[in-house]
Amino acid sequence: MTNLWEEKFEAEGYLYGEEPNEFIREQANRLESKKRIVAFAEGEGRNAVFLASQGHDVTAWDYTQNGLKKTEQLAERHNVTVQTEQKDLIYDSVPFEEYDASVMVFGHFLKQDQKTVFDKLISVVKPGGMVLMEVYSEDQLRYQTGGPKRIDMVYDPADLLEWIGGYKVVHFFYGEQERVEGRGHTGTGHVIQVILKKEKIK
C-alpha cells in the first residue's frame, strides 16, 4: 500500500485539491479556542494548511513522504507553518493527551485496523479536547464518486456508534454529502461524520 499512495501523491497537482474538506471548513469554528491540532492520514495537507491559516498550531501525520512534501509546499504557499511527521497510524505509537484536537478526513484503513486508528484519535487529545472525523460509509460503494472500492476499507456506522459510546457526542451524521475535492472525490457521496468531546458521560 505504501507504493500505491506514494505514487498517487507523486503525480503533479493535488489529488484531492488544495481546498479543505467542507466538513472541516464548516466545523472549524468549534476549534476557535483550541491551539494544538493533529491531522491523521493527512495526505497532501489541505486540511492541515487550512487549520494553520486559522491560527492553530498544526501537525500533519501521513504514511507517505510525497504527501508530507506536498503539505510543506502548500503551507509555504499559504505562508503558514505545519509540522509534518511520517507515521504509520496502525503500528506507530502516538503521544498521549498532547493535543487540543485531532482530525481525520477519509482515512482509509482495513476494517481490522479502523478501531486501532480511532482509539489513537482519542488518545492523543487532552481531556475536554475535540475529535473531528469524516469517512466514507459502506454505502459509498454504490456511489462510485471516490474512496476505496472495497467493503473492507469503508466504515460501518454501527461500529462508529459503538466506539463513541461513553463520550460526549457533539455531532453524528450518516448520509449523503456533496464532495468536490480535486480528481479524487467528485460528486455526491455517502459519509459518516463524528465530532466528540473527550469527556466521559457519567
Low-confidence stretches at least 5 residues in length (pLDDT < 50)? none
Percent helix, as a range, is 25-40%
Number of helices: 6
CATH topology: Rossmann fold
Architecture per CATH nomenclature, i.e. the level-2 architecture: 3-Layer(aba) Sandwich
In total, the number of strands is 7
Mean pLDDT: 94
Query: Biggest sheet, in brief?
Result: 7 strands, mixed
Radius of gyration: 16 Å
The general outline is globular
Share of residues in strands:
25-35%
Query: Please, what is the CATH homologous superfamily?
Result: Vaccinia Virus protein VP39
N-to-C CA distance: 41 Å
Q: What class, by secondary structure content?
A: alpha/beta
Could you state the order of secondary-structure elements as H and E?
HHEHEHEEHEHEE
Level-1 CATH class name: Alpha Beta
- Biggest sheet, spatial arrangement of strands: 3-2-1-4-5-7-6
Tell me the count of domains: 1
Task: Please characterize this protein's 3D structure.
The chain has 202 residues and is α/β, with parallel strands linked by helices. It has a single domain (2-200), classed as Rossmann fold, CATH 3.40.50.150. Helix content is 28%, strand content 33%. The protein is built from 6 helices and 7 strands. A 7-stranded mixed β-sheet has the order 3-2-1-4-5-7-6. Strand 4, helix 5 and strand 5 form a beta-alpha-beta unit. Helix 1 packs parallel to helix 4 (65-77). It is globular.
